[in-house]
Design goal:
Layout: H1 8-31, H2 47-52, E1 59-65, H3 67-70, H4 79-91, E2 96-100, H5 108-114, H6 118-126, E3 129-133, H7 136-142, H8 151-175, E4 180-184, H9 196-214, E5 220-223, H10 233-236, H11 246-262
Parallel strand pairs: 1-2, 1-3, 3-4, 4-5
């Protein structure tokens, strides 16, 4: 009786196809974090709890926005926000308190809504520094993300984003004339993928809009990030290929810290 020989070549294609499907599905699941929105800031309690824990400190830093201020992708959980806080606490002679109200997946429209809450406005009034990351979800939801970039939809999203950013900055500056607001610019997490030129051009347009809005206010500063992830995105992005990893957040923190040191802050609660 002859033994049947296994034809490995015939199995190569289906095995390769199966591996591709598994990897693609894993990538799809990981990127869904970008499009999730939670009712409250992740792992930080509700706004009332945040306000009640605020110390009577010399300086107060407030974080607003999306998953980048939340720190998604950093295995330590710090993100740029807590990295900055720890550095400043080590340098400052006085005490520094902070509250992070960022919500993973939040868009600019949702931030406008969040800022209408009385407790949020109360914290804005007390802040010496306010850091914001907002716009990534607006852009990559509206443009079609990886599959195909819809320029018409992206432009419509940009128009609404500019209106929202104006309302966000107007609200903050009207509630607190002394705080310095730091708005992070956007980067292109897909700069090493197909359609890189189109996606990078879109990000550049949105960054220009942020810069122009920031220029309308004396105490609003845009913090660029595009170049931080431009040449070696894989070295500074998390496995979902969207959020920064720990090294990426360190780059963001290192860019923000000197700007905060330029303005040591004033106690706006007095």
């Amino acid at each position: 009786m002859k033994k049947r020989r296994l034809n490995w070549t015939s199995l190569l294609f289906p095995l390769s196809a199966l591996c591709f499907i598994v990897l693609s599905f894993g990538f799809f699941l990981s990127t869904q974090e970008l499009f999730k929105t939670t009712d409250q800031p992740k792992s930080s309690g509700n706004v009332q709890d945040q306000g009640s824990k605020l110390q009577d400190s010399d300086l107060f830093m407030l974080g607003l926005g999306d998953s980048l201020t939340r720190g998604i992708g950093d295995k330590t959980g710090d993100g740029y926000f807590d990295q900055v806080k720890k550095t400043l606490q080590a340098e400052k002679k006085g005490t520094l308190s902070s509250v992070n109200l960022a919500i993973s997946g939040q868009t600019s429209s949702e931030l406008v809504k969040q800022m209408k809450q009385e407790k949020v406005q109360s914290l804005i009034k007390k802040a010496d520094w306010i850091t914001i990351t907002i716009g990534g979800n607006d852009l990559f939801r509206g443009s079609g993300r990886l599959e195909s970039i819809d320029l018409k939809s992206a432009n419509q999203s940009k128009i609404q984003y500019e209106k929202n950013l104006h309302m966000i900055l107007d609200t903050i500056t009207s509630l607190n004339h002394d705080a310095v607001v730091y708005v992070f610019g956007l980067y292109n997490p897909f700069s090493d993928l197909a359609d890189e030129k189109t996606s990078s051009a879109l990000v550049a347009e949105w960054n220009l809009a942020i810069q122009q809005k920031a220029a309308d206010y004396d105490r609003v500063v845009m913090v660029p990030t595009f170049d931080l992830f431009q040449l070696q995105p894989n070295a500074y992005l998390y496995s979902d290929h969207f959020h920064p990893n720990q090294a990426g957040y360190t780059r963001m923190a290192n860019r923000l810290i000197p700007l905060l040191q330029d303005h040591p802050g004033e106690d706006t609660s007095k």
